[in-house]
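Marked as duplicate of an earlier ticket. Keeping the data here for the record.
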Amino acid sequence: MYCLSLRSLLCSSLLTPRSSQDLVRYIKSLHEGWSDEVHYVLDNTPRESVEQRDLYDRSPELLRSWADGNVVLCGDAVHPMMPNLGQGGCQAIEDAYVLTEMLANTKKTTDLQATLQDFYKKRILRVSIVQFLSRLASDLIINAFDTPWSPHDDKGRSWKSYLTFFWKPVLQFAIFPAQFAYLYSFFPTGSMGALPNQLEEAWRKKHKPASETAFSEADRERKEGGPKVAKPSFFQSAADIAESVV
């Protein structure tokens, strides 16, 4: 939670440019009363490594197409959003999926421009809603919410703290479930139907025998006096292969 809060404060476009030294001092002032560990980390962070990187989003392009002729924009190029829901990259992947699927069904080059326009129309509603949710989450984190009130300490005594405290059950049991159900239950071409069960069955059939064999072998070697010598990690194996190629 600290990392999320610090990132939001650091990256907010509400901050004005300042030197690294001033920025660290400013961050420390925002965390007065926090645990000593937080200030220890800030005090021992090299000043030259602290940077301010503002984040920007943009309003949805509801009335202007993403496509022009045979060119189309995807991802952050056309619908950048705040990172609080982690959806910038996710929506770019969805764009790529839908675009690939639509291009695969386009048989004539003369239909390409129409396909790109249809791609825009198919994606605009979804990404506009996610852009709105991301901006709303950013505004709430920065401007409306604060450390929730607690009877166990003296923190959280502002009106924002009390508001956050009373909003927690609503957020946890109503708003968040609905929001994440929309974000993560989406399938670009509609209902996923039986696909999740089919994927689970395929992966289970492929990997379960190998994993059971590995566990059985490890158990046998343990009973015989000790585990076998561990294999090199993936990264070490990759490095060895690269070195042999060179």
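See parent ticket for discussion. The CA atoms of residues 157 and 233 lie 50 Å apart.
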